[in-house]
């Protein structure tokens, strides 16, 4: 995955934040109990951007008989959970450009209605074991836009990867829109 290059040989390592169990539980509140796939997430600050390394487990598909591999619906749900946690932690730690003024109360208010996936693409390289896999996500860019003088929104480019211990892999990109922001 192509994360922004932010460290030099003599620079200190980027700040990293381990899983905040309380925050993770709150981020997953909107999900049905059997659809809470995200188990842990470590967030790294990247000069106005942020990245996450996560662990997932899907004991059983929420909508289809067992396929034996991670499928596109489950990847999308895993991405959503990873993204929501990364945004929430970024708001809490003031990591993500464009959201510096947000509080966690702002995040909770905007989480479902105002953070939209405008584009989502995934490429499966090798089947991924859904019972135990990891995911990575990085914000590549966040820009403020107000097309035609309309309501401003944040446009974010992200990349992600899911993989397992046996070489299973799925890569993808997603474009986010944060709407109804001040």
Describe this structure in words.
By secondary structure, the chain is α+β, with helices and mostly antiparallel strands. The chain has three helices and seven strands. The chain has helices spanning 21-27, 72-93, 104-110; strands at 16-17, 38-46, 49-56, 115-126, 133-145, 153-163, 169-178. β6 and β7 (169-178) form a beta hairpin.
Which CATH architecture? Roll
Mean pLDDT: 92
Gap between N and C termini: 32 Å
Q: Count of helical segments?
A: 3
Taking all Cα atoms into account, the compactness measure Rg is 16 Å
Spatial ordering of strands, largest sheet: 1-2-3-5-6-7-4
The CATH topology corresponds to Thiol Ester Dehydrase, Chain A
CATH superfamily heading:
Rv0098, thioesterase-like hot dog domain
Spatial shape = globular
Q: Element order, helices and strands? A: EHEEHHEEEE
Task: Count up the domains.
Answer: 1
| Strand count | 7
Residues in helix, %: 10-25%
What is the CATH class name?
Alpha Beta
Task: Name the poorly predicted regions.
Answer: 3-7
**Main β-sheet description:** 7 strands, antiparallel
